[in-house]
Amino acid sequence: MTSLPPPSPGQAYMHVSALQAGMLHLPTDFLVQGEKHGYKHCPSLAFFLRHSASDKHFIFDLGLRKDLESYPPAVRAHYLDTETAQMRTRCSVPQDVAESCLEGGVDPATVEKVVISHLHFDHVGEHTPFTSATFILGGDGAATLADGYPENPASYCLSASVPVERTLFLNRTEHLTTPIGPFPLAYDLFADGSAYIIDTPGHCPGHVTLLVRTSAAGNWLYLGGDIAHDTRLLTDADTDIALTTESGVACCVHRDPAQARVDIARARQLVKLPGVEFLIAHDWKWFEDNLENAFLPKQFVPRKL
């Protein structure tokens, strides 16, 4: 039976605070098979995490950048379409991650690590304020960057999405070698069992998720990025990712639907385990319910075991 490692004596864990990182409208029938066409006003959540023992800290995801015009032409044309104001995702960024950090009392220049779940436009944000950070990406993302814009004019990814000279690309021979719960490949970020970066490549090449302890007693929080775009996919085995829209048009938000289903099935197993809570990047309900109590400088409070 799948289980998670019990806490060690003096077990370190992570203090977790959400960060505002922009909003976007997502079409509902692109997310879950059989849904009526409509739109959900969703956050692109980012997180500030601080190690309980060492006070070391890092950020998971950078959300949207404020300057939408700085995205590659392919992104602007397909998702934003700012010239005709027909924004498919109707993005707005009242506050980006750097501004959210400053408002919460954290200087972006002091952030030590930034883990990017994947290289889609609503997760890479703007890296330039994080001048001291080592960036961490799933290794398969390296090829996406190498083929990015402007070198490839048709690419949806900016080749300068991260500072490559201080980026660690996690590979499956040196880094992603630790099994955790139902997932076979993970990286123990602090080598103490407090935070695991998990290989979940179904959404797109290089996609990773994060599992962190949130107490010394056995609480965990799974930050799922874009492993799923609706919480029901992680709680209801009868809910499936969309392969067609309501009108019957073939469409899937995951690059590899078969692998995405494997990743989601594993995540379902994980979130059923005692003490495990989860958040996905575009969880509109959690955002609405917790905007006043879980965003930096405030912290996510684990539920009682």
Automatic annotation (TrEMBL):
Task: Indicate the segments forming the Metallo-beta-lactamase domain, all copies.
Answer: 43-282
Keyword check for Iron: no
User: Could you tell me the keywords of this UniProt record?
Assistant: Hydrolase, Metal-binding, Zinc
Against InterPro entries, the record matches this protein to:
MBL_superfamily_lactonases (IPR051013), Metallo-B-lactamas (IPR001279), RibonucZ/Hydroxyglut_hydro (IPR036866)
Q: Which Gene3D superfamilies match?
A: Ribonuclease Z/Hydroxyacylglutathione hydrolase-like
The answer to whether the entry has keyword Glycosyltransferase is: no
One GO molecular-function annotation for this sequence? metal ion binding
What's one Pfam family the UniProt record gives for this protein?
A: Lactamase_B
The protein's required cofactors? Zn(2+)
| UniProt similarity note | Belongs to the metallo-beta-lactamase superfamily.
**Protein name listed in UniProt:** Lactamase-B domain-containing protein
Which organism is the protein's source? Mycena indigotica
